[in-house]
């Protein structure tokens, strides 16, 4: 099954809730791809031997990998960390996350500055392009195990909105304007 994504409501309730609009408005893989968000469905139970993951890493130059368990029992200052992840920001590089267990939400801004919520579950690998406004939170399960991939040494710097003069943001916006800048689909 493909990843689920939808346009969010404007509620200030717990960010771990789904926040569907009424009526619900789903976002397609093509709509995500138009924003530069790429997606693959992989086998999370055998990620060490997954040839498709190996090919993605080789093709895209992801030579650094680590694993992150996010849950109250394993993360010091859990609530504070979640609050930081949920602050709208960009990165200078792609953000690559592969969900191995559990689930959570990546929210991205569309061309009209509306939030699209992407629900990642075990087996979902997503790539957010450099310069896209986004944020992350867990869902009500309060647990996710993620593989983080990078080109070279990991860079953790988040640049909180507004970042319109940031070179990564300018490049991203230029790509949105130029048709065919982003591939239409990964899978």
The profile of the biggest β sheet is: 8 strands, antiparallel
Tell me the span between the first and last alpha carbons: 11 Å
What would the CATH topology be?
Jelly Rolls
Q: Output the radius of gyration.
A: 16 Å
Q: Uncertain regions: pLDDT < 50 for 5+ in a row?
A: none
Mean pLDDT: 93
Backbone shape: globular
CATH superfamily: Jelly Rolls
The first-level CATH class name: Mainly Beta
| CATH 2nd-level architecture | Sandwich
- Spell out the helices and strands N to C: EHEHEHEEEEEEEH
Counting helices, strands and paired strands, the structural category is: alpha+beta
Please tally the helical runs, counting DSSP H or I stretches of 4 or more residues: 4
Q: How many independent structural domains?
A: 1
Q: Quote the beta fraction.
A: 25-35%
Family: Belongs to the acireductone dioxygenase (ARD) family.
Subcellular location: Cell membrane; Cytoplasm; Nucleus
Pfam families: ARD
Enzyme class: oxidoreductase
In short:
It contains four helices and ten strands. With 187 residues, it is an alpha+beta fold. The strands form two sheets. Strands 1, 2, 3, 5, 6, 7, 8 and 9 form an eight-stranded antiparallel β-sheet that branches. It has a two-stranded antiparallel sheet with strand order 4-10.
